[in-house]
Structure formats: structure tokens, C-alpha cells
Prior knowledge:
The complex is a heterodimer of chains A (221) and B (231). Helices cover 30% and strands 28% of the residues of chain A. Chain A is an alpha/beta fold and 221 residues long. Chain A has one domain: 3-Layer(aba) Sandwich (Rossmann fold). In chain A, strand 4 and strand 5 form a beta hairpin. Chain A is globular and about 45 Å long. The two termini of chain A are 25 Å apart. The termini of chain B are far apart. Chain B is mainly α and 231 residues long. Chain B is 79% helix and 0% strand. Chain B is globular and about 70 Å long. Chain A: One of its GO terms (cellular component) is membrane. Chain A: Belongs to the ABC transporter superfamily.
Amino acid sequence: MLRVDVTKQLGEFSLEASFESQGRVTGLFGASGAGKTSLINMIAGLLRPDRGIIALDDETLDDTSAGVHVPPHRRRIGYVFQDARLLPHLDVRQNLDYGRRMNRLAADPAQFTRITDLLDIGHLLDRRPGKLSGGERQRVALGRALLSKPRLLLLDEPLGSLDEGRKEEILPYLVRLRDEGIPMVYVSHDAAELRQLATQIVMLKRGRVTALGGVKVLTQA
Amino acid sequence: MFEISPAEWTAILLSLRVAIIATLVATPFGIALAWLLARREFWGKSVLDALVHLPLVLPPVVTGYLLLLTFGRRGLVGAWLADHLGIVFAFRWTGAALACGIMSFPLLVRPIRLSIEAVDRRLEQAAGTLGAAPWQVFATVTLPLALPGVLAGMVLGFAKAIGEFGATITFVSNIPAETQTISSAIYSLIQTPDGDAAAGRLVLISIVISMGALMASEWFARRATQRLHGN
Lengths: 221, 231
């Protein structure tokens, strides 16, 4: 379970969001500038709330009144960025292995093969990110986040930088991922995308939560 | 004309040793400082920044004299080091290395700092979300991506160190086989009636070394860039 109750002032923009999510895939829906990315950056620990609480399952990740702030590298929250952010000096295999190495986990070849099969990236392992297409990059970023064995996976418009054709190419993989059972927070401004993926919706408008509930709240959008 | 005498060889080898040691010892400090200046905000940052650049604008003789006051036999730090660790800088080649290291430090730090500033912080954030602690992010993302700048800084620092004259001669004098580098040997030779030929040889050699260093710097930078962005 993810519990978020935070406020954050970013220049002129104020973000005040409170929601709880039990869902497997929480869709964070809103127009650009609604504060979606700031919100998941706070969940990831990349941004500190001015006030409030963020808790995942039984662990408090942020509690400003108690001075608690768990740094990103100790949260075990995977993050798939809109722009993939693969490490350019490492090949695909090293990128996929990065989280495991940093967390000093034993190699798990079976899981590695399963994820690379799931995402169809097995043939790309020796390439550098610079030689990948946009869709391939995004699939590697997904695999990289998954292989760091996160408790929660954040996806910030993972299809945002792709054209329509590419989106259709990635979407089935995201559906497969959802069925893997790792809880996800999926950020998008595309209601159709969220209808296919999300089990619960948090609607965000100009820094405020305006609706909470099942996928049907999207029809009000 | 081109017979290099043993005394000249001594000066050449000493210069190389002084510049190499100065560069190797200064590099870790340079990287740490460059990172601090590029990535951290703290009280006194502008003072530290100015301090690093001071040897660049101060008359070298002033830097040398300050070194003599600090690291000389009776200097505050020099006396302590000599008594407790047995390390002596005054009138030794180690002192020449110290002077060269400090004089070349601004040139070493600058390219490293610029290349660290150029590393995309979003990549560092991504590494953090994958479980990399800040020191791991530095070792596996920041430093490898800044490597061209580190190499460029090292070679530039080396080139400056090998040509250093003013601070070195002020601090450790001009003792053949101990502190007489190529520069101070040239200085001595051009004040000697028949020194022109020997001075000319050393001048040529110092041009060759400096050119070689600059070309090596270019080559390293190109290779590192290829490694980072190619294939």
C-alpha cells in the first residue's frame, strides 16, 4: 500500500496531494504541468516534500514532522523515466545488471533471462544505448528497473517520447509487466493508455487531487 | 651539437620525475575539489574557488616564498613533517614536486570541474533510484563520464608542472641533481658564457615534451569521447 500526503512549493506552483493506493497499478492522470512528475519524484525520494508523509507498506519513507527522509538509493523503488536515462558508457547488459551490482545482490541468471525474454531485448545485450531505437531504449529501461528488484515501480510517461507506432509496440510489454505483480504507479496524460493498464486512478489538476477511484473516473476527464 | 651531456640528462629526468609525481599526487585532490566545486553548495565556496586559482594569478616568487615559510625546515608545517614523519621538502626534489603540484593545480582542476559539471545529473539520479549510494554514483557514473576532462586536466597539469620555474627556484633553489629541473638548468646555462648550445638543446627538449603532452591530451580526450558515445 502506498500512502502519500504531501505539500510542496515549487516556485509559483504549489502541489498539495493526498491519496492512498491499494491498487496494483495506480494511474496518475493529469495534464502536463499538473504536478505528476514532481509527485512521483517525491515518491522516489528525488524531491523532498515541504511537509507531509510518504509511506510504502509498513515503511515511512518521508515524514517531515519526524525528520525522516529515506534517500532514493535505500527506497528500493524502481523508476522508469520518460527519457530512459540509460547509462551511455555501459552496454545494455551492464545497464541491466547495474541495480543488482549496486545492491550487491547475487547474480540471478534465470531472472535475467526471464526479463530479457519478456521484453524481447536479449539480442541487444552487447549494444551501447546510443545504438538503440527509442522503443528499445525504453524496454531496456524497464528491464533495468525490474532487475533491481524494486518493491514499487514508478513509470513517468514511459511512452511519452515515442511516436504512435512505437507506443503500440511497448504497450503489450507494459501489460505483461502489470501481470508480473509488482505494484506500479503509472504517470500519463493519456486516458486511453491508463484505461488499458491502471486498476486505480488518481486524477491531478494544477497540483490538487481532483478525483480518486476506479478507471471509470477517467470518463469525467 | 646534439650530444646531451650527463648533467643535462639529470635535469631532464629530474624534471620528468618531479612533474609526474606532482601530477599523480595532485590528481586525487584535484578530482575531489573539482567535484566539490561542481556539485556542492557550501559556505566559503567562493573563497575556496579563489584559493585554488590563486597560484595562477599570484607572482610565482610569492607562491614559492609562501611555500618556503610554510614547508621550509623551520616552517609551521615543514618542521612538524620533518620531526614526526621524516618528510623534508626544503631544498629536495620533493619540494620541487610540491611547488609544481601547487602551481599546476588550477590548470588540473579546471577541466575536471567543467567535465563533472557537464555530466547529466539526471543520469546520476537514475543511478540513485537503482540503489547506488552517492559514492557509488560518483565512482560508476560521474567519474567515468568525466574521464576525458580528468585526462585533459592531468596532461595540462603535467605540462605546467614541467615548465614551472619561479616558485620552484624560490622554494628549493637550483641544486644540480636535486632540484635543478630543465627550466632552472636553462636559467643557469644562459647566464654562463658558453652555455648557449646546452641551453638550446634543453629548450628544444622542453618544446618536444610540452608538445607531446598537449598532443597526448588531445588523443586521450578523443579516445575517451569515442568510448563514451560510440558503439
